[in-house]
Amino acid sequence: MCLALFYNPFLSELKLDKFDTAIIHNLRQDARQSVSSIAEQVNLSRSAVAERIKKLEQTGVIRGYQVLLSESQKEGVSAYFEIQHKCPRCADVVHVFHAIPEVITCRGISGDMDLLVYVHAPSMRRLHEIREYIDTHTDIIKIKTHVVMSEWINNAGE
Questions:
Q1: Using CA atoms, how far apart are residues 126 and 122, in angstroms rounded to an integer?
Q2: Please, what is the end-to-end C-alpha distance for the chain in angstroms?
Q3: Mean pLDDT, 10 residues at a time, over the chain (158 residues)?
Q4: Which positions ≥6 away from 60 have C-beta within 8 Å?
């Protein structure tokens, strides 16, 4: 289990100095570490670090914290579907994926395939049903399935 930090690096209203950047870096490494530990690492007082973290949270630079479970602790199964279709535009086939509640993302990609669809299903059986449902659409030419076996890095939310 790991605690992740969600922050918005594109927030332009607040200029981050080297201390804010260092604090965010430390929180991204371990969001559960103490303010005292961070203060020691960035060479500021504990109260200055606590005040800066509070300001970063209030201004929306730090949007929150999230527990990320390792793949072995998650329920269900995740997979990526590489999709090739025959529509003139990807937007013409996306309705197929809107109809599937287990679809997390659907992205247009370059190369031989047209779309990369990320799905999290409660079971392998449900994943298979989703794949078969997609395959029934005449606009879909080819599907390649990549089941997620493990996750090494997840910087989601940034």
A1: 7
A2: 19
A3: 50 74 87 91 94 89 73 75 92 91 93 94 92 94 92 69
A4: 8, 11
**Two tokens, residue 33:** 């570490």
Task: Look at residue 75 in the predicted model and tell me its pLDDT.
Answer: 76
Helix, strand, or coil here: 62? strand
Q: Within 10 Å of residue 37's Cβ, how many Cβ atoms?
A: 14
The tokens describing 95, both together, are 């309705």
CA 123 – CA 128 distance, rounded (Å): 9
Residue 102 host element (H or E): none
Could you tell me which residues come within 8 angstroms of residue 83 by beta carbon, excluding any fewer than 6 positions away?
93, 113, 114, 115, 116, 117, 134, 140, 142, 143
Output phi, psi for 49, to 5 deg: -65, -45
Please tell me the distance from the alpha carbon of residue 27 to that of residue 33, in angstroms, as a whole number.
Answer: 7
Segment holding 85, helix H or strand E? strand 77-85
pLDDT of residue 12: 44
- Cβ atoms of residues 52 and 20 within 8 Å: yes
Name the one residue in this structure whose structure tokens are 């076996």. Answer: 149
Q: How far apart are CA 80 and CA 105, in angstroms?
A: 9
Alpha helices (H) along the chain: 18-29, 35-42, 46-58, 95-98, 124-135
